[in-house]
Amino acid sequence: MKRLADKVALITGAGRGIGAAIAFAFAREGAAVVLAELDIETAERTAREIRAALGASASAIDTRGADKASEAKVLAVQTDVTQSASVQHAVSEAEHTFGALDVLVNNAGINVFCDPLTMTDDDWRRCFAVDLDGVWNGCRAVLPGMVERGAGSIVNIASTHAFKIIPGCFPYPVAKHGVLGLTRALGIEYAPRNVRVNAIAPGYIETQLTHDWWNEQADPAAAKQATLDLQPMKRIGRPEEVAMTAVFLASDEAPFINATCITVDGGRSALYHD
Asked: Is residue 38 classed as helix, strand or coil in its secondary structure?
């Protein structure tokens, strides 16, 4: 029996990186998966790759092909998480295509790293609009249905920045601290209705954003090696390793895990000093 059989899941920022890995893992475990992504071309490409990998026969699907989408397990919907109406549209498309949502993964996020005193107002607003408001927009869109049905799992992708501070990364950790607060508050608020809200805090994960950061340094190879040297396991994580944690939290295997955060960082945050 697949672990997410008959479940419907919406994943924001699912076009690449951790979001794409979560989409693949959920589909492999039997869920109908909705990729809610700002870059619709990226989402559609990932949807095609999922269908090809799983041997699905349905043709490419987007919001213009709802009649075909009912025959498939993957749907791509263009979504701007900073706009509540856009998120609600994605939820409506998901429900129209596959039925009521069982799972929401709030994965969409951006890195905004600034000096606090030279950061612009636009930098601050951009960070919070995506990394915190975007999470709330997703929760607010799915909670009414989950509460009404008395079941649901929300998984928020936070970060080890939510409880550890790296100088020069402001205001990103402030927003991620907010994601943990939101997770705990909503988890407690809706626990009596059997709606669970949890978070995952990834550490260093090998995504395109990580490679981009290495490549921006004066010596990319040295920057990569320095990152690896910081890790107790002498490697960084893979998106699939975050994805399988999301599968667990979304599944019926975690019915009493609520309002908490699982750290996926190979032990880095437990290290006292280097």
From this structure: coil
